[in-house]
Amino acid sequence: MSEKFWKKSWDPGLSDLDPKEWETTFIDAIRPTFEDFPNKIAFEFMGVEVSFTEFDLYSNQFAHMLIENGFKKGDIIGINLPNTPQYMISWVGALKVGCIVSGISPLLSSEQMQYQLNDLGAGKKKVGSVTLDAVFEHRLKEIASNLPQLDLVITTNVADFLPKFKQVLGKLLKKVPTGKITPLEGKKIVNFMDIFEKYSTELPDIKLTPDDLAYIQYTGGTTGPPKGAMLTHRNAVADLVIVQKWLGWDNQRGMGLASSGFPLFHIAGLFFCENCVYLGWTQLLIVNPRDTDYICKGMKKYKPTVLVNVATLFHLLLKNPKFKELDHTNLDCCISSAAPFPKEIQKDFEEIIGSGKILEVYGMTESSPLSVMNPSKGKKKLGSIGLPILNVDLKIVNPETGEELKRGEAGELCVRGPMVMIGYYNKPEETKNAIDKDNYLHTGDVGIFDE
User: How far apart are CA 169 and CA 175, in angstroms?
Assistant: First the structure.
């Protein structure tokens, strides 16, 4: 597409940004949050509130634990947890060492987990994993002998951050899954909560660059077995800065409170979490996104300004009478991604929360993830993924010939921008198939440009 004709539909005042804005690392980008909002709640988990100062110090301790166990820049930490304080701490702590983070779903089978951990270790990197005790006993233990690169296992229980009486009660009532930790030959095992007794709270002195890998996030992609999308610190910060400018969030530092039903091991949950930490927003950590009573309880107490969910979860909330009874005046927007949101349900939803508050977006793991969004202030089209965002080039091509198509013709969406991955981990052929000579990512998704 010779000209970015979609710019005429952008909100007033928006224009492409200077790429210098993302010449930094994610760790440097979030440093001001810890300094500017030390006492603000960083996240809430089942009644437990953790401030940004506590979050910063805990993640420093996690980082020092990794360093003591021989982990260094370029090694890999797989985080195999639901949305808990331990996920947040492991994620930022690993990045502070210069380690690469890979989200691993706790819902994976033993075979799928083995595949991902071995794929991560295929580059002869040192690999560590943070996992639940229940997953350790029932899945990790049985595959441990098939994981030669797995060097370190950090175990935790989903309730470890809760007060002792809640932990005991939860386990007695079998509301909290548990598992027994036993030795694994050739692997060091660390209890997550012991880290806070043993390690320094000082920020480690590790030099990172924007080109360093921050994440290897697995995706089915368009074909074949899961592939690890390699995302640099620059990729992550670029998407952050661009999306915040698009939404007008860049001038709301410290002012927001957010809730997301996306798991942190998924790119959508991770990206939204990055935004909250960067902005100094409080976020409500949700372990079970299908527990809409719990979500409604949190919304009633904290009154979030932003909700981010997949369309099916918005639909579940719509069915819960408690959601309809809430005061939604504080809610600025509901961002829907990962799957289409039927128009009729959107209309029903906006009747409860207020008109114009649903914002549909499009992205994929390979693009950090967002590249297309509905306008924040201007006309939103229900049932449409919106407009290419700042600094993004988009074209629609015939997947057989690669020929660019006219407006109104359906073809494959191809995206180019500073948020697009550098390639698939250890899969040069797959990378060549996904990213063309002009650096466009071929998404495998079908789209149409209208006027």
Answer: 8
d(CA 427, CA 1): 29
* Residue listed under structure tokens 């021989």: 70
Whole-angstrom distance, CA of residue 354 vs CA of residue 331: 9
Angle in degrees, CA 105, 385, 278, rounded to 5: 55
Q: How far, in Å, CA of 197 to CA of 281, rounded? A: 28
* Structure-token pair, residue 396: 């629609």
Distances (CA, A) of 292 to 289, 296, 323, 364, 430: 7, 6, 8, 26, 39
Residue 170 near residue 193, CB atoms below 8 Å: no
At 160-212, the pLDDT tens digits run 999 999 998 888 888 899 999 999 999 999 999 999 999 999 999 999 999 99
- Cα separation, 443 vs 194, in Å, equals 43
pTM above 0.90, yes or no: yes
Amino acid 220: pLDDT: 72
Q: What's the pLDDT at 225? A: 83
Burial of 74 by CB count in 10 Å (0-12 exposed, 13-18 middle, 19+ buried)?
Answer: middle
